[in-house]
């Protein structure tokens, strides 16, 4: 009796008489003969198909493993031979070989070494001196200092269908020298292209007033997005700053006219409120002057003093209104007598 394993379900039992059933203890023995025969035929077909799949998988995996083992074995053997020959060359050309074998990297640099095309264990070397074998070792210097990238102006269509030109500055550095060499062809060029794309995508989801008033928020979101995307390249984005937002000339004129009209409207409102308050003050003053006739004469004198301080050559003589009132009353009495 053969029991092949099914990764998608319980084991299938294949009997010698051609009958088959799933060993699940669900009471299949009570089924009718006809149903049992149909189930046996379909189960045999599925068992043969699974057996063929398992056989092909196992044989393919075994063949691949054998091929990989042979390739790795041959590569390791050739590698040992080449390393031995390289050491012999170093010893024979001593001490001139030391000029080629010893390298120095600065404090802000790291060296990623490849031996026979494979990345050496231990990660990047440096800072300081390190040793390489001639002819079989190759190394790449990686600068860990912060770099500045000035993103060129990008023409962006905002969410409210306004075309603006936006430029920014991105500060980034290499955080993992080994990953920046092994995982991407040119980490700096890739980061710069991604910065331009991220700037356009971020600005395209914002309204114009948000771009003009929320630069710090937009810069922070861009920094997080870039840092997350470049982490697999060994790049750390430290800061993103939006430099300038350029609007079309016609839009600038329209916005200036709108702002000017708004300022004029506010000025008119303020002037009207001032006139209203002045009229109330004049009404109160007139009531006070009406209660005291001498206050009017004092007001005349005060006005004369103000005019004389500004224009000394002008002489102003106040005429009391009471005199005019006397003449008007005399005229009315004369007309009444006639």
Automatic annotation (TrEMBL):
**CDD domains assigned:** SPFH_stomatin (cd03403)
Lipid bilayer topology? Single-pass membrane protein
Report any Pfam family annotated for this entry. Band_7
Subcellular localization is given as: Membrane
Instruction: Give all residue intervals belonging to the Band domain.
Output: 100-259
Provide the protein name: Band 7 domain-containing protein
Q: Which SUPFAM superfamilies match?
A: Band 7/SPFH domain
InterPro entries, A to Z: Band-7_stomatin-like (IPR043202), Band_7 (IPR001107), Band_7/SPFH_dom_sf (IPR036013), Band_7/stomatin-like_CS (IPR018080), Stomatin_HflK_fam (IPR001972)
The alphabetized UniProt keywords are: Membrane, Transmembrane, Transmembrane helix
The species this protein was found in: Anopheles atroparvus (European mosquito)
Spans through the membrane = 81-105
Q: Which family does the record assign?
A: Belongs to the band 7/mec-2 family.
Q: Which GO terms describe its cellular component?
A: plasma membrane
This protein's major location comes to membrane
């Amino acid at each position: 009796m053969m029991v092949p394993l099914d990764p998608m379900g319980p084991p299938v039992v294949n009997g010698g008489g051609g009958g088959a059933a799933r060993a699940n203890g669900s009471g299949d023995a009570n089924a009718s003969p006809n149903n049992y025969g149909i189930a046996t035929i379909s189960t045999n077909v599925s068992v043969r198909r699974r057996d063929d799949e398992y056989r092909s998988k196992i044989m393919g995996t075994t063949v691949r493993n054998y091929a990989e083992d042979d390739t790795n074995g041959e590569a390791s053997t050739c590698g040992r031979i080449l390393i031995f020959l390289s050491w012999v060359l170093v010893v024979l050309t001593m001490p001139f070989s030391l000029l080629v074998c010893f390298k120095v990297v600065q404090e802000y640099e790291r060296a990623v070494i490849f031996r026979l095309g494979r990345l050496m264990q231990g990660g990047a070397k440096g800072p300081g001196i390190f040793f390489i074998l001639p002819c079989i070792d190759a190394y790449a210097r990686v600068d860990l200092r912060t770099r500045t990238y000035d993103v060129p102006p990008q023409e962006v269509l905002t969410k409210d269908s306004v075309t603006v030109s936006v430029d920014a500055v991105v500060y980034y550095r290499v955080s993992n020298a080994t990953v920046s060499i092994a995982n991407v062809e040119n980490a700096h060029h890739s980061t710069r292209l991604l910065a331009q794309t991220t700037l356009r995508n971020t600005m395209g989801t914002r309204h114009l007033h948000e771009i003009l008033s929320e630069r710090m928020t937009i810069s922070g979101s861009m920094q997080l997005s870039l840092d997350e995307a470049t982490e697999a390249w060994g790049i750390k984005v430290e800061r993103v700053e939006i430099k300038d937002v350029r609007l079309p000339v016609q839009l600038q004129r329209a916005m200036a006219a709108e702002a000017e009209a708004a300022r004029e409207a506010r000025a008119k409102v303020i002037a009207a409120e001032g006139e209203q308050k002045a009229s109330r003050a004049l009404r109160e003053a007139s009531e006070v002057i009406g209660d005291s006739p001498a206050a009017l004469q004092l007001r005349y004198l005060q006005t004369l003093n103000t005019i004389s301080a500004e224009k000394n050559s002008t002489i102003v003589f106040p005429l009391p209104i009471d005199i005019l009132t006397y003449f008007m009353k005399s005229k009315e009495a004369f007309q009444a007598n006639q």
